[in-house]
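User: Modeling request: complex.
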Amino acid sequence: MRRAVAMLGLLALLLGGGVPARAGETYDIDQTYGDIGFKVHHLGLFSSAGTFRRFTGRITIDQTHPENTRVAVVIRTASVAMDWENAASMLRSAPYFDVARYPDARFTSTRVIPRGPDRYDVEGLLELRGVTHSLVLHAALVGQRPSGVAGQEIADFVVTGRLRRSMFGMTADPAFISDAVDLRIDARLRLYVAARAG
Amino acid sequence: MLAEAPAGWSRAQRRLHWWSAGLILGGFAIAWPMVALPLDQLLAKFLLYQAHKTIGLTVLALLLWRGALRLRRGRPAWDAGLPPGQARLAGAVHLALYALMLVVPVLGYFTAATAPAQVPTLFLLVIPVPHAVGADPAAFGVLRVVHRALAILLVALAAGHAAMAVHHHRKGLPILARMWRATP
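Assistant: Request completed. Predicted assembly structure:
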């Protein structure tokens, strides 16, 4: 019940409803708990996953025009990590993320569309290897609780999406590494909310 | 085991011997390019690894089959023309070969299981073989070295075993012939 109330609180926050949150508030995505993960598939037999260790993210919530809620994330491509370091080194090389030439990848939202009480579609532009394409991410609020600081709550989102790496010029080894890359981003926001009445 | 030694190796024993020999040589031969292939040839590397793993698991299965036959049926008596000292040495080498055919695939399995690159083991490329343990870089570092060293020892002993068989064949002893075809 408390969770449901909290979710309603966030929805209200995003939609500019009754919860008194500050207008146009900007939040940093908490990197300590956040995780930008990706997964590729091999011959339909198994998959490999990796993460980016370093990124910065910012979300600006526009209460009066929720569709104008903005998300901007900058990923340090050199921070790519996999269980097997040789694979991570391969991903830093020129045929893949080419981190020497393209140290950053960027996602900038263009529109946020509420799709349910705890789900949002985030439309935006992804810049990767110097190429920019549109990308739709699906965000779901999976948990919200008080942070321990008065007037602040922690909201955890799971964001998923899928892109085709070839669209960004990353065409190496198509026989073994799937073109489709599944994204899974765990993001944590510290939201400012007024003390709940109950 | 039978009280009396059989006259010769059974057809199954002969076939299993040669299949094991061929698979061990093949698995050994592809091990080197499999490791050396760079990561920009991932598909070829992956296929070679799966072939190598399939061969290793097959050698292990054939060994168990051979062990069962050997226990049930026994082996033909040593050739009368073979000096007793050489027979004892041959017996020791055979025992070592059996032991290595057991240990090398088992170590190979654990090498694959503990590898930092968590690639599944797919028998014949389609049947997943679960890994009993997970990635463990320290164990992997030891296992891969021991697996390789014992595999080299296995192939070296097999080569010595084959050289002696050819040597005795040229001296007229039917040791190689009775492994090649049925003893009349």
